[in-house]
Amino acid sequence: MAVSTTRRRGPGRPPKAEAGDTKGALVGVALKLFALHGYAGTSIRAIAREVGLSESVLYAHFDSKRAIYDETMKLVGPQVAVTALDAADPSADPADFIRMFADRVLAAWDTPQARQAISLITRDGLVHETAHTEGTERAIRHLAEVFARWIEEGRMRDDLGSAEDLAYALLSPIAHARLLWLHGGATEERRRAARDRVIRHADLFARTVTVGA
Amino acid sequence: MAVSTTRRRGPGRPPKAEAGDTKGALVGVALKLFALHGYAGTSIRAIAREVGLSESVLYAHFDSKRAIYDETMKLVGPQVAVTALDAADPSADPADFIRMFADRVLAAWDTPQARQAISLITRDGLVHETAHTEGTERAIRHLAEVFARWIEEGRMRDDLGSAEDLAYALLSPIAHARLLWLHGGATEERRRAARDRVIRHADLFARTVTVGA
DNA sequence: ATTATCTATAGATCTATAGATAATGC
DNA sequence: ATTATCTATAGATCTATAGATAATGC
Lengths: 213, 213
Fold this sequence. Notes:
2 copies of one chain form a homodimer.
Chain A: H1 22-37, H2 44-51, H3 58-61, H4 65-76, H5 79-82, H6 94-109, H7 112-121, H8 130-152, H9 163-181, H10 188-209
Helix pairs in contact in A: 1-2, 1-4, 1-7, 6-10, 8-9, 9-10
Chain A binds a DNA duplex (26 and 26 nucleotides) through helix 3.
């Protein structure tokens, strides 16, 4: 009765109407499968099958399995998330800045692609590659510079700890929530709980360490 | 000239003098290789070769590759780390308790096996399995109960946030430092920096939220 | 001529099993 | 007889390549 609507493709270049962004589709599917099963747990066969093409088509677009992996890292590597930090206004009221900063970071990290990135990162030991740890350190130092200015200006308490320790106290619970709960397989409910937790944390931190309002 | 000192083993049961804890050795090496390359990235061939035995010997001790993986999880699963939390004395001075608690947790998480566990966990997406996330949640709730008592007794500030939010503010930077820096491949220098950071954080937290001394 | 796909297959590896062999312990 | 190992191999799967085929765009 029911005949599959997906046209069986034969040999030869497909007509223009059917042609799509094969390379982009391959990268997207590869990211999804690497995130689900890890690099070694994903065969190029599985990638091609999911896209609906023959497995050898992959070698028309990439030199090797590794090359397609590298391509996914370009898309979702840590450099993507760092940009969110630079978008905030350090001249704003400290407490408000902190709350807005947390909001922004959450928005950047709770997109479908950012969550697939977390799944990939936590499936291939990439948490421990310098790209990820250095990225985290850089974000902490970056935030610490802002805090150091505030401390100098008397807008942040100076009796609790160094600017860097304070930056760690704010950022690391956010990064931790991301690693644990903002991943590809997380339910919407679980993700909302994580976002709420981060927002409460940022608020607690803002009220504790800033001066006046 | 130089002849290998490792006796080439032939067929047949080895003499008693040479017999060791083969099963234990297989599990230990499997944990190491899974931590290095992930489950799918580790062949039973590689495990057997590292132990110095034929690959088929693995099937004399385990039913399948999956069975040896399950065995490593019994050894280094999250239940191992949770025990450290129950060893502290909640009747101690809050600030001291917090510092000692951080010390204990660090000691439990900076052992070679605990670090291999982290590498394994971050190489197979186990961060997102309930065993790990639930274990983290349980530890937070457990600590929150202690904090709730302190708040009732007036030994901890009640104007900052709920006991659970405070528990998250203390614990999650510690758990985050563990995930990022207390892994199998971390240098001693990197690990010390992580431990120092955690100790400074616990101290900052203790001075900020506890009352009197 | 170039591009995008296919089929077919080489050659490497992987998990798992069958059956032999030699030491152990009853 | 049991235990702990070996060699040899079956059968599945994986990466990668060769060569055919058909639409496209000059």
